[in-house]
Structure formats: structure tokens, C-alpha cells
């Protein structure tokens, strides 16, 4: 791993501020992970570990938006695997699945009725048009 020779007191407007913050958080996370291996019941440090991980993930997300090349380089050098989380994923319950199926069935039935109504209107309009032209609907034999 390359040694980063940047001061830790960079102003937040500096272009490499994200990089330094991500590196320092990664170092902190790795030391906390080692600590958690030895002291598994230390809840306070576990909380700090989770908060630091969330903070680093947020910073990586922002860095990815701002400068993708630097983001890739940082992830590669630090050995970080960045995975994009889905926006929202709700576990499907049986009740929800049944409700969805019912809603879908009702929607399809409604579409079918609309189509039939439209076809009847079109047939009525065509019959009316034929009557206006003077053509009888069915020729009668007299």
C-alpha cells in the first residue's frame, strides 16, 4: 500500500479531502476490526466500527460521483470492495403477494371491460354511419 503524504488537516474545500478522509477512516476501521476480533463483547467499539463504515461508504459514494478515476484508484489500493446498495427492497410476504395478484387481476378485468365497451361503441358508430348512408344493415328479400 502506498504511503499517503498528505496532511490530515486539509480544508474540506481541498480536492483531495475525500481521499485523505477515506484513507484515515479505512485505517481506523481496520484497527477496530482487529480490536473486535479480540474483544467480541465490546459493544461501544462495535458501534464505532459500524458508524465509521457507514461514514466511509457515504464518502466513497460522493467520491464516486465527483471523480470516478480517483475512486477506482483508492478502492484498488486500499482493497475496498464497493457495492451499490439497491434503493429499496421490501421482503414479499404472502399477504402482500395475494394483494398484488388480486390488484393485477382486477386491473386486467377492468382493461378487458374497457376494451369490450370500446368495441361496442365502435360497432354502434359503424352501424349508425351505415344507416346515414342509406345502406340497410341486412338486405331483406321482398
Description:
The structure is a single chain. The chain is mainly α and 142 residues long. It folds into 2 domains: 62 residues, Orthogonal Bundle (Helix Hairpins), CATH 1.10.287; 47 residues. It starts with 16 loop residues before the first helix and ends in a 9-residue tail after the last helix.
Short description:
The chain is mostly helical and 142 residues long. Helix content is 68%, strand content 0%.
Helix-residue proportion: 55-70%
Count of alpha and pi helical runs: 4
Distance between the termini: 103 Å
The CATH topology of the largest domain is what?
A: Helix Hairpins
Tally of structural domains: 2
In the CATH scheme, the class of the largest domain would be Mainly Alpha
CATH level-four homologous superfamily name of the largest domain: S15/NS1, RNA-binding
Rounded to the nearest angstrom, the radius of gyration is 33 Å
Number of strands: 0
**Which shape, going by the Cα principal axes?**
elongated
Q: Which structural category fits the helices and strands?
A: mainly alpha
Family: Belongs to the universal ribosomal protein uS15 family.
Pfam families: Ribosomal_S15
Coiled coil: 22-49
GO molecular function: RNA binding; structural constituent of ribosome
Amino acid at each position: 500500500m502506498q504511503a499517503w503524504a498528505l496532511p490530515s488537516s486539509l480544508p474540506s474545500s481541498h480536492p483531495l479531502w475525500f481521499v485523505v478522509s477515506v484513507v484515515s477512516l479505512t485505517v481506523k476501521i481496520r484497527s477496530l476490526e482487529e480490536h473486535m476480533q479480540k474483544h467480541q463483547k465490546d459493544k461501544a467499539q462495535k458501534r464505532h466500527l459500524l458508524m465509521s463504515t457507514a461514514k466511509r461508504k457515504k464518502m466513497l459514494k460522493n467520491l464516486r460521483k465527483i471523480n470516478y478515476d480517483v475512486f477506482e484508484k483508492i478502492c484498488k489500493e486500499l482493497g475496498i470492495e464497493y457495492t451499490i446498495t439497491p434503493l429499496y427492497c421490501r421482503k414479499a410476504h404472502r399477504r402482500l403477494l395475494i394483494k398484488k395478484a388480486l390488484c393485477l387481476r382486477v386491473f386486467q378485468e377492468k382493461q378487458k371491460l374497457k376494451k369490450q365497451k370500446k368495441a361496442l361503441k365502435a360497432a354502434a358508430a359503424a352501424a349508425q354511419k351505415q344507416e346515414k348512408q342509406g345502406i340497410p344493415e341486412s338486405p331483406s328479400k321482398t
